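Board notes (copied after class):
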Amino acid sequence: MKDLGVLLPLILLIAGFYFLVLRPARARQQSFLKVQTELAPGARVMIASGIFGDIVSVGDDTIELRVAANTVITVKRQAVAQVIPAETPETETSTED
């Protein structure tokens, strides 16, 4: 019983480390991998520096982004922070009084 009193703080410390550090890191890694799999020509993305662009081509390690007319930049795939979902046109709702 005395051994349990010594081990309990260690067990709580390990559990706290798991829930505060390891689980969030795993979730971030999974979301990063999801973003990387969604990269395809024509997708609109934002890179880590805040630049928005449309993907022109995807290579093994780099992608080419069109950021303006006649302006294409090459960036690392890992620089993509998020894929911007395609905008859906909002339908007008008419309310009759």
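Comment from the instructor: The chain is about 35% helix and 30% strand. The first strand starts at residue 44 and ends at 47.
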